[in-house]
Design goal:
This protein is mainly beta. The chain has five domains: 133 residues, Immunoglobulin-like (Sandwich); 102 residues, Immunoglobulin-like; 88 residues, Immunoglobulins (Immunoglobulin-like, Sandwich), CATH 2.60.40; 100 residues, Immunoglobulins (Immunoglobulin-like, Sandwich), CATH 2.60.40.10; 105 residues, Immunoglobulin-like (Sandwich), CATH 2.60.40.730. Helices cover 3% and strands 53% of the residues. Strands 17, 19, 20, 23 and 25 form a five-stranded mixed beta sheet that branches. The protein is flat and about 115 Å long. The termini are far apart. 28% of the residues are buried.
Length: 549
């Protein structure tokens, strides 16, 4: 498979994995954590997170928008690693693809792809509309060649190849005739194939970008052909002979606070045959390596890239294109004290405790600084009325770079936003406070609580009942909630848990006990561990029951 097509398939795979979120209806689904599906030409790919083929696996094809199955695929083969399906390594998420060949279908068009297999309890699990198969007469390229390499002093080459049209209904091919395009840099050139689907044309390779594949000494020419409802492309790498070039930075020195970013700019020129230094064409990438990003030259050979201050290091601006033979340009960097925070998160438990976590990175701290602390602040609207609730901090070491995580827990202040704000030494650069929303949970309450009959004879049944409600946002019955019962005997100083029951569709709950001694009953809703959507309820009212001999 073409590596560029593989990369696109890889991207679709990773996206589908994110979208495959389990639901309550899939409780017995062995792959509820995620699987993905994609299509390529007349093939369907299904990715699972296990080496074992799912029991009862089928792929069902339907006309787009229709309901009737058109074909059912039951034969699958492993899609082996050396076929480059996901370079470099998107298979880290879902590494075990299965491939099914699509049979001849009578009509061209789009088909919906459904995936079916057997669940853990023997039931049928069906995932509809997992992908779309574009079943069309499609063009493809063969025998792409370049007669010669190129350089800044000689950009022309003769490209040639063949274009064919494949009809999946008949499994036959015929020459593709007519217009198609070739693109280099930002220039797209129309070309034409002859009656046999062959082309041979002189082409000027534009721009200064290299191949999209790292470490390649070629420039890309992308050929694109289209038929109704579908297009296809292929890339030819044209060998490039580099010319002598140089990178000149606007400044050899740079100063900034740890964790901040700064622009690094300069000019890239190349030496022409007459000895003159000329600006390189647009599109030549210049990279700052570990400490920064990549900038590309404009028509004047100018570039700008962003670098991040991480210490007193020497940055190198290096050419990343095969068109140029240029030594790196160095930049002396002086990093001043600072720190930054990242991965700020907030979680709230069923008991209304808010936990705030963050990661700290710091560097070049002055002597005497042994820690960094941030005020944890909350606000109702995330803009005004910020109130400090507690603080969050880490232990540091002067002068050295370091990183650590920290967290703190405090009582939930209600709905709104939370942020971290530094109010310490002005000599240490701190990040601008960024706010995140406080997670929401639904309030619950126990109403209509009663223990009856009152009084009751010892040994006889006593029923404890009530109604569980939730604010969504008005108060409504809450079904499926676990209600726990508590009893305190007369004269005792402690409460004893008496078990639990689950509320009905109308929110009602009840449980019958054997009356043993007089005392007080109460109940409350407790959110089970998987429940991240509700708060525990307050205790119900207390109901005292007299137990007679």
């Amino acid at each position: 498979m073409n590596k560029r097509i593989s990369a696109a398939l890889c991207t679709m795979t990773a996206m589908a994995a994110v979208l495959a979120v389990p639901t309550a209806a899939q409780a017995a689904d062995p792959y509820a954590k995620g699987f993905s599906t994609s299509t390529g030409n007349e093939q369907v790919f299904v990715f699972f997170d296990t080496l074992e083929k799912p029991k009862g696996l089928k792929v069902i094809l339907r006309r787009k928008g229709g309901t009737a199955p058109v074909a059912t695929l039951t034969s699958f083969t492993p899609y082996v690693k050396d076929e480059d399906i996901c370079e470099p390594s998107c298979g880290d998420i879902l590494p075990y693809p299965l491939k099914a060949e699509v049979p001849k279908l009578p009509e061209l068009g789009e088909y919906s792809v459904d995936v079916q297999y057997t669940g853990t309890l023997g039931e049928t699990v069906l995932h509809k509309d997992r992908a779309t198969l574009n079943y069309r007469v499609r063009p493809y390229f063969e025998n792409l060649k370049a007669a010669n390499g190129v350089s800044f002093t000689s950009r022309d080459t003769v490209v040639s190849g063949d274009i064919k049209a494949y009809d999946p209904r008949t499994r036959t091919t015929k020459p593709f005739t007519g217009a198609f395009t070739a693109t280099t840099g930002t220039v797209t050139t129309p070309l034409t194939a002859d009656a046999k689907g062959h082309f041979q044309s002189r082409l000027t390779v534009s721009g200064a970008a290299g191949s999209a594949e790292p470490g390649n000494d070629k420039a890309d020419v992308r050929f694109t052909a289209a038929l109704p409802g579908i297009s296809n492309d292929a890339v030819l790498g044209v060998p490039v002979t580099p010319v002598k070039a140089r990178i000149a930075l606007d400044s050899p020195n740079l100063t900034g606070a740890f964790g901040t970013e700064s622009k690094v700019s300069g000019t890239v020129t190349w030496k022409a045959p007459d000895g003159a230094w000329k600006p390189v064409p647009a599109g030549a990438p210049v990279n700052l390596g570990f400490y920064g990003g990549t900038g590309t030259t404009d028509d004047a050979g100018r570039f700008t890239a962003l670098g991040r201050f991480a210490g007193d290091f020497v940055w190198k601006a290096e050419s990343l294109t095969p068109w140029l033979d240029a030594d790196p340009a160095t930049l002396s960097v002086d990093t001043t004290p600072g720190f930054l925070t990242s991965h700020l998160s907030a979680t709230i438990d069923s008991a209304r405790k808010l936990t705030v976590k963050s990661w700290f990175n710091w560097g070049e701290l002055p002597a005497g600084v042994t820690g960094l602390r941030m005020d944890v602040q909350t606000s109702a609207d995330g803009k005004t009325g910020w109130t400090t609730r507690t603080d969050l901090g880490v232990t540091t070491r002067p002068g050295s770079n370091g990183a650590d995580a920290a967290e703190t827990t405090f009582s939930n202040p209600g709905t709104g936003f939370v942020r971290l704000r530094y109010s310490g030494s002005p000599d240490i650069h701190a990040p601008e406070p960024a706010a995140i929303a406080i997670p929401r949970r639904t309030e619950t309450a126990v109403t209509d609580f009663n223990a009856a009959p009152e009084p009751v004879k010892k040994g006889k049944p006593i029923t404890v009942s009530g109604k569980l409600t939730q604010a969504v946002p008005t108060w409504k019955p809450y079904a499926g909630g676990r209600v726990e019962y508590w009893f305190r005997a007369t004269g005792a100083t402690y409460w004893k848990s008496m078990g639990s029951s689950t509320s009905t569709a109308g929110g009602a709950f009840s449980r019958t006990f054997t009356a043993r001694e007089s005392g007080v009953w109460k109940a409350r809703f407790l959110a089970d561990t998987p429940d991240t959507t509700h708060f525990n309820s307050p205790y119900s009212r207390e109901d005292e029951v007299l137990v007679t001999p």
